[in-house]
What does this fold into?
Amino acid sequence: MIWNEKYECMDNKSKKELQVRRLQNIVKFAYDNVPFYRRHFDEIGVKVDDIQELKDIEKLPFTTKTNLRETYPFSMFAVDDDEIIEIHTSSGTTGKPTVSGYTEKDINIWAEIIARAIVMVGGGSKDIIQNCYGYGLFTGGFGVHHGGRKVGATVIPISAGNTKRQIEVMVDFKSTILTCTPSYALYLSEFLEKEGFTSKDINLKAGLFGAEMWTEEMRKELESRLNIDALNIYGLTEIMGPGVAQECLIKDGLHISEDHFYPEIIDPDTLEVLEDGEKGELVLTTLTREGMPIIRFRTKDLTSLNREKCECGRTTVRMSRITGRTDDMLKIRGVMIFPSQIEKALLKIDGLTPNYHIIVTRDGILDEVEVEVEATSELFSDEVKVLEELENRIANHIHKEIGLRVNITLAEPNILPRSEGKAVRVTDKRNFN
Amino acid sequence: MIKQLSVFIENKEGRLKKAIDILSMANINIRALSIADTSKFGILRLIVQDLSKAKKILEENNFLVKETDVLAVEIPDEPTGLNKILNMLDKSKINLEYLYAFVGSKNNQAIVIIRVENIEEGLKALNNGDANILSQKDIETF
It folds into this structure.
């Protein structure tokens, strides 16, 4: 099923025409209504009329998270305050939060893209969505809520936390779609088991998992534990929230709603736009947003684009699963490492869970990496030498897979941080000053 | 042959105490214990009176617990006591993983808990040497 065939299955030509028209409009709208953009464009001498084709977007300057912080709280809004009907913010863990303002039309668009996402994973009006994304300033809860209502599904606004209650609701209300972070989904599946339930006791068929990076191995784990299709949802507060892109049941990339968002991939160092298929930083432009138009936002997320028509029938461009962020890339002894690579390596060892914590320290001039992994009853032995062999085996495996020597420390089960929001995977204790 | 509980103890402050606290709160009497420690983790080995209850309560508190088969032998509490037992194992070329001992409440008797690579062979060697091998029940009432 496809929620909006007209826009999800457009032929290439009409799609491009639509995008150019919308791009021209949004650039003019931003220039006319947001002083930041007027200044920003004037500074490098770019004019609204310079945008004649899609490629002309490269003439426009980027918008960064720092720009959004500098305009905190409302200076990026393009409409009068009374037209803003909802406000969300980023978590603000790395500084002042960035604020996102929505007009009624924006909220409708948000609901529309989430509706597409729900239908894309096989959902519809008969479904019961257990929405464990946090309700509040975080976009996850309300985004899914708006979209769930649009398709006529039943939304359980349970929000994050209170795992015991989540399980009770999941079993008793027969939820069919689960929306949360993948790490919380894993925690829920462990908790289910602990409470004596199996996947036979629940009715879930699909999960919309996002707000943090995860791997194909984690997908397999979640799918077998919960007997579901585990699908990737992508979005960010600055642009809209979840639903900017969604994976379909083919599981080969996330469909970007191109009628509302224009994606580019750039080299984060040279800032040049890369070819389709090349991996780089995702840059997004909102094509229809009223409350807060965003031009060429640097997401810091690393992915690549695939414009081939998908087997599901949709023609929208697909982005690959996010494989890293330009800012959580770890440089260890000069080698670029992403936490997801370590996760991938760990999941290839039987008996290990995808719960891990990477600690980076620097002893003198040498970086040291410690990876805490949870011991499981399957792996636990009464003998010291067996456990030490296990630690070595894991370390060797990681070395073989990603070429990095790490120290493995076994941790007790269920004590590594499992957050209800974003999982904390890395603690970098190096002092770079 | 008796059952020993082995508990994984992470190398973090307070973890050993937590395990012991849990057992004490559940009113479980520890008959003997030993700790194997490395720089990164420890293994707490316990002989307790109510094994299944102890296992359950520890697991409920997220500890990794494993039942391990070990040999328990009563020896006279005197200089040659342990030596005799070790000789029996040595003669049959039984590899010893670890052992620990405690003094029982009976007069002049000690108990050695022995973990060997091959428990059947170990049992045979001790039987042949006429060692006083204790059962689970013996241990619980010792």
Notes: Chain A touches chain B at residues 375-377, 380-384, 387-388, 391, 409-415 (CB under 8 Å).
